[in-house]
Here is the input.
Amino acid sequence: MIREDDIAFAGRLADAAGEIALRYFRTAVAVDDKEDASPVTIADRTAEQVMRELIARERPDDGIIGEEFGRERSGAGRVWILDPIDGTKSFISGRPMFGTLVALAVEGVPQLGVIDCSAVGERWVGVKGRRTTHRLKDGSVRDVRVRACAELGLATLYCSSPLMFKEHFPAFERVREKVKLPMYGGDCYAYGLVASGFADIDIEAGLQVYDYAAVAPVIEGAGGIMTDWRGKPLDVNSDGRVVAAGDSRTHAAALGLLGG
Here is the structure.
């Protein structure tokens, strides 16, 4: 069960990470390569460290799963899942489409998610059983809803990069060939566009739990659907191949093509 103080705390975590990200954005930060060859900076590490310190101080019994510093008490009933800078490649190349992802999973299922895009001043908050909200740069907050899209031929499709699909590229290509408008490079901001009714579907592969856990409550709270490629609901053990769609008809059509 998600409480009001959980929602407020998730917002404070995102605030703390976003402040650090903006401090380093478009500055000459050193970029290191992790073992998987993905980039990381002092901004990623510092932002996650600050979030972890807040959780340790105010929610000491909760678990943590973070991109930069791994798992801590991850078997707890309530686990915070953190991606301090989702879209580090955008961050280091000066594109403002990166964001902070904060999720709270209860018994392994994401129940609360925040997509915070600090460089553009926008934030989406999704909570199980509630309507997703979108905070704009001027501070105003509104409920959002996905749009109808009856078929793939009418759809705007996002993915961060076609390079992420590797051996799954032929499956992704079957969907891309059907859509009206394929778009690339939106990072977590693209999921917010699906939730707000400006795009129809987002397909990705090779994700980790901190890449998708915060997104699922946002999409679902806006009236959309987000599953793995087999149509199963997402949890902390999902395989990292995801489909987020505003319309169940578009979602079903994409699943049919992804499965061959």
